[in-house]
């Protein structure tokens, strides 16, 4: 009997709560102007600056740009939009970020569309194409990073923080088109020092950078003397070749101490008159590294100069080549 009373009381309480809820007045929210939330923006600007490494090709390379509608609902009418590049924004960007990028030359790119619309009931423009010239007259210079600030404009409200997409554009050749040169006739004709004894009979000497064996290596002298950087090896390729870049393989050890870090490449046609071809930064890795020269150059001789090594005044290297 007691259990039945409790059940009846619980049912009564629940019924009363539902009745009260049903009698409660509807809540009316104040009217809101949805337009105050609606703004235009460039979606790629969320990731500024947008880095693009383009392959050097006879065909122009394509980048995408456009504008989006953000806020509540959908546009109730077509929204007119235009795009432009303002060189002054390059100056502002460099000042804020401590950089020194140059504006991508006008002859190196074409905006596929300058004026367009976001159609009524749509949230974005169609994807638009920015064409970049990477070869031939007027092309972007190889290995040089340019800045291109592309901004949207409209009589409709624009999100100023996302109004401009800053494209960082660098053109590089396709490494697959530049195989390593055959080294079978190459010779070491000079070196700063080598460890002729301390690394055993089949290690330490400069000639081992050309033997095709990653387990052998050249090491700067450490027994009897310990010269400081710069260290160097000079290679005679036997004939004039166009040097596009250098490939290196570090000594195959677990630690990084002594692996070349900052290097300079000098080149010569006669082993007497030398010019600097560029300074390169190498990673502390055991894998082969292929590193482009800033400009392609003809040479018969090249000198690999180690300006600094990882955590050591010594240096060592397993293999050295070019492409």
Summarize this structure as a short list of keywords or feature phrases.
323 residues, mainly beta, Immunoglobulin-like, Jelly Rolls, 2 domains, 6-stranded mixed β-sheet, 6-stranded antiparallel β-sheet, elongated, disordered N terminus
CATH level 4 superfamily of the largest domain: hypothetical protein (bacova_03559)
N-end to C-end Cα span: 98 Å
Total number of domains? 2
Architecture of the largest domain, CATH level 2? Answer: Sandwich
Give the helices and strands as they follow along the chain. Answer: HEEEEEHEEEEEEEEEEEEEE
Number of strands: 19
**Low-confidence residue ranges:** 1-24
The best one-word shape is elongated
What is the helix content?
A: under 10%
Largest sheet: 6 strands, mixed
Radius of gyration: 33 Å
Q: Supply the number of helical segments.
A: 2
What fold name goes in the CATH topology slot of the largest domain?
A: Immunoglobulin-like
CATH class category label of the largest domain: Mainly Beta
- What structural category characterises the helix and strand content? mainly beta
Mean pLDDT: 92
Write the layout of secondary structure elements.
Blueprint: H1 2-23, E1 39-41, E2 50-55, E3 61-65, E4 68-70, E5 79-85, H2 88-97, E6 102-103, E7 109-111, E8 115-118, E9 128-132, E10 145-153, E11 164-172, E12 187-191, E13 218-219, E14 231-249, E15 260-268, E16 274-281, E17 289-309, E18 316-317, E19 319-322
Parallel strand pairs: 2-11, 6-10
Antiparallel strand pairs: 1-4, 3-9, 5-8, 5-10, 7-9, 10-11, 12-14, 13-18, 14-17, 14-19, 15-16, 15-17
């Amino acid at each position: 009997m007691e259990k039945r009373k409790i059940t009846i009381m619980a049912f009564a309480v629940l019924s009363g709560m539902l009745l009260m809820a049903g009698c409660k007045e509807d809540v009316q929210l104040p009217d809101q102007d949805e337009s105050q939330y609606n703004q235009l923006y460039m979606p790629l600007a969320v990731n500024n600056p947008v880095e693009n490494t383009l392959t050097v090709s006879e065909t122009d390379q394509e980048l995408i740009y456009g504008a989006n509608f953000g806020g509540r609902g959908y546009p109730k009418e077509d929204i007119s939009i235009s795009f432009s590049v303002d060189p002054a924004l390059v100056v502002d960007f460099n000042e804020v970020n401590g950089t020194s990028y140059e504006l991508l030359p006008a002859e190196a790119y074409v905006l596929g569309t300058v004026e367009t619309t976001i159609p009524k009931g749509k949230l974005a423009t169609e994807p638009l194409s920015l064409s970049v010239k990477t070869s031939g007259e007027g092309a972007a210079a190889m290995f040089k990073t340019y800045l291109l600030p592309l901004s949207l404009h409209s009589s409709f409200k624009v999100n100023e923080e996302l109004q401009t997409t800053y494209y960082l554009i660098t053109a590089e050749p396709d490494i697959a088109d530049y195989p390593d040169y055959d080294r079978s006739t190459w010779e070491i004709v000079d070196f700063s020092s080598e460890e002729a004894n301390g690394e055993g009979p089949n290690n330490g000497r400069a000639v081992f950078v050309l033997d095709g064996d990653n387990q052998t290596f050249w090491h700067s002298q450490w027994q009897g003397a310990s010269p400081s950087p710069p260290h160097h090896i000079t290679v005679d390729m036997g004939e004039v070749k166009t040097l596009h870049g250098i490939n290196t393989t570090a000594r195959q050890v677990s630690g990084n101490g002594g692996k070349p870090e900052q290097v300079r490449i000098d080149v010569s046609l006669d082993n007497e008159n030398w010019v600097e071809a560029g300074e390169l930064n190498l990673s502390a890795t055991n894998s082969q590294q292929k590193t482009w020269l800033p400009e392609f150059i003809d040479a018969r001789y090249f000198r690999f100069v180690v300006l600094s090594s990882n955590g050591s005044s010594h240096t060592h290297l397993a293999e050295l080549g070019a492409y």
